[in-house]
# Entry
Amino acid sequence: MIENLAKNLVELKNEFVKSYEGKSQIQEVIPKSNSELFQVTDAHLELLHEFATKNPIYYNFFEKKVGSIDCIVYEGDINRFWLNSIQHVSSKAPFSPTWIMSGYIATLFAKELGYSEVIDIGSGDGRIAFCAKILDMESYSIEIDEMLVELQKLLSNKLDFHPYCSDAVKFDYCSLNFKHPIFFIGGLAQMGGADLAEGVLQKINSISHLNNSGWVFAGTYSQKYAPDPKNKAGWGTFIEKNNLKAIQTVSLPTVWTFHEPESTPYIFSQSI
Amino acid sequence: MDSDIDISQMFYSESLKLQNLIEAINTKTDMNVREITDTYYQVINVSSIAAMLKQHTESEEILNKIQETEKMISERFNSSIHPEILTRLSLSIQEMTKTLQSENFTEKSKEQIEYDAKLFEDLRQKMSTREFVQQYEIGISHD
# Structure
C-alpha cells in the first residue's frame, strides 16, 4: 500500500508539472482528501495542510484538480533561507526541501520497517520530523541554521517534533535515549551529504546499543552529479564502506527534482 | 602537414578574437556574466591551441605570434583584467548579499517575491561565475 502511495505521488507530480503555469521558486501539491489513489486518513492530510499554511516559506496556495485528484497547490520561496544557510561554514548543503507529502510517505516506510524514532538530520523546516510525529513516532529535528530552527519552532507548537539548533556531527545523541532510531540524512552524497552522514554515523556507532539503527539517504540519478562506482544513487561507496545494506529504495518528489524527469530515490539502509 | 596549417590558421583567428575581446573590455566599466565567461573561455581556448601548436611548428613567424599572444594573456589579462574582474565580482556579490539580507520579506506581495527571486538568481549566477574565475586563478598560479 505504501509503495502504491509513493508511485501515485510521483505520477501526481508528473501530471502537475505538465499543467503548472506559475512562476514561484518552489511549488508542491497535497491531495485535498482521502481517495482511492491516496488512502490517507483525512486527519493526517489536515495536519499536512496545516504545516504548509502555517509555514512562511509558502506565500500562496490555491485549489487545482491534478489528473483525477483534487489538490491544494502551495507556492513558496526559500531564497532568504538559502542566503542565510550559505554563510555557515559547517553547513553541508543549502536548504531545499522534500515535498511535504513525500516526507509523510517516507516516514510511513520508516514506521512499517519497525523503527520507533525518526531523527531528521539537516532538517530544514522540520517537515520529516513533523510527519513522523503525525504517525505517533517520536521525532527529533537537528538543524545547524538558526533561522530555520526559528521557523521550526513556529511549526512545532501543535506537534512537538523537538527542533534542535546544532551541528549534527557534534550533537549529543546519548541524551535522547533512543530505542530503535532511524536517521534521515539531508543532502545528496555529492553535495556534502556523505560527509554529514559519515560524521553522524561515527557518533551513533560509538553508542553500543544503537548498532541496529536505520539510515535513509536522499540520492540522485541526475547526470549533473558524478556517479558513484557502487551506484545506489550516489551512496553505494558510503554504504559499503560503513557496513550497511540497502533494504529498500523509494522514489519521491522533492523541490529540487521538480523540473527533472526522475524523482528523488530515498535509500533505506541498515547495518549488516 | 595540412593539419598543422589548419591549427595555425585556427590559432590566428582565435587570437584575433581574443585580442578584440580584450580591447573591448578596456573600454567597459562593467561586464555581465556572459561576457566574463566568454572571455575566460577564449583565453583558455587560445592558450590550449598555442601549447599544441608550439609542439608542431618550427615556423619562426608562428612562434613569434605565439609569444606575442602569450605576452598579451600574461601581461594584459592575467596581471590586470583578471584581478579586476575578480575584485568587481566579489564586490558586486557582497553588495547584492547585503541588499537582499536587508529586505523585509514578511510584507511582500506575490509579485514582489517572484520579482525578487530573479535577484537571487542573479546572485547565484555571479557566485558560480566567481568560482569559475577563482578556478582560473588556481590554474595560473600552478603554471
Remarks:
- DSSP finds four helices and no strands in chain B.
- Chain B has a mean pLDDT of 90.
- The radius of gyration of chain B is 20 Å.
- Chain B touches chain A through 14 residues (CB under 8 Å).
